[in-house]
């Protein structure tokens, strides 16, 4: 929809230049997308990373909700579901207090930085957030599915 409505597409040169958002990612080093033995030894680290990433995405999704107003209700629902998932996964971590949840000052600082963008950059930023959130969720689903299939794990 972003590509159609705002002509913000994957091959946009401006988009590539502006991708300095430092969005959360799930990587092989997190133990989330590697082999069975490695995965088992890093599963707690993986769950912490996923939960922390989901909490971090909350601020970005609030920005998307404010800027992509035509999809406000959908983004609000997505944000609520993301927060619920972050909380659920946090409860699966051995020490839930180790999950990094951005404090109010960090969230406000990030929101201020995001809001300072020009309209064109705002649309690119919204697209990048949604694209990276989709990638993060795909890897999260894969990691949780793997955990569920390799252990007596209920999610």
Task: Write structural notes for this entry.
The chain has 155 residues and is mainly α. The protein has one domain (43-153): Growth Hormone, Chain: A (Up-down Bundle), CATH 1.20.1250. 69% of the residues lie in helices and 0% in strands. It is built from six helices and no strands. Helix 3 runs antiparallel to helix 4 (72-92) and helix 3 packs across helix 5. The longest helix has 32 residues, at 36-67. The mean pLDDT is 77. It holds the Pfam family IL6. Keywords: Acute phase. InterPro entries: 4_helix_cytokine-like_core, IL-6-like, IL-6/GCSF/MGF.
Briefly summarize what is shown.
With 155 residues, this protein is mostly helical. It has 6 helices and no strands. The longest helix has 32 residues.
Feature tags:
4_helix_cytokine-like_core; Growth Hormone, Chain: A; mainly alpha; 69% helix; 6 helices; globular; 155 residues
CATH class: Mainly Alpha
The radius of gyration is 16 Å
Cα end-to-end separation: 31 Å
Overall 3D form:
globular
Run of helices and strands: HHHHHH
Give the SSE layout:
Layout: H1 2-6, H2 13-17, H3 36-67, H4 72-92, H5 104-115, H6 119-150
Helix pairs in contact: 3-4, 3-5, 3-6
Pfam families: IL6 (PF00489)
Organism: Pachyramphus minor
GO biological process, one term: positive regulation of receptor signaling pathway via JAK-STAT
């Amino acid at each position: 929809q972003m590509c159609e409505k705002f002509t913000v597409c994957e091959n946009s040169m401006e988009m590539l230049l502006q991708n300095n958002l430092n969005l959360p990612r799930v990587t092989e080093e997190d133990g989330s997308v590697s082999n069975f033995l490695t995965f088992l030894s890093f599963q707690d680290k993986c769950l912490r990373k996923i939960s922390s990433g989901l909490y971090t995405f909350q601020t970005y999704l609030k920005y998307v909700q404010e800027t992509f107003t035509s999809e406000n209700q959908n983004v609000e629902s997505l944000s609520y579901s993301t927060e619920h998932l972050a909380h659920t996964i946090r409860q699966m971590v051995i020490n839930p207090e180790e999950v990094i949840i951005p404090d109010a000052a960090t969230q406000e600082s990030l929101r201020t930085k995001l809001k300072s963008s020009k309209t064109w950059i705002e649309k690119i930023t919204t697209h990048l957030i949604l694209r990276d959130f989709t990638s993060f969720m795909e890897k999260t689903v894969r990691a949780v599915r793997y955990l569920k299939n390799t252990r007596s794990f209920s999610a």
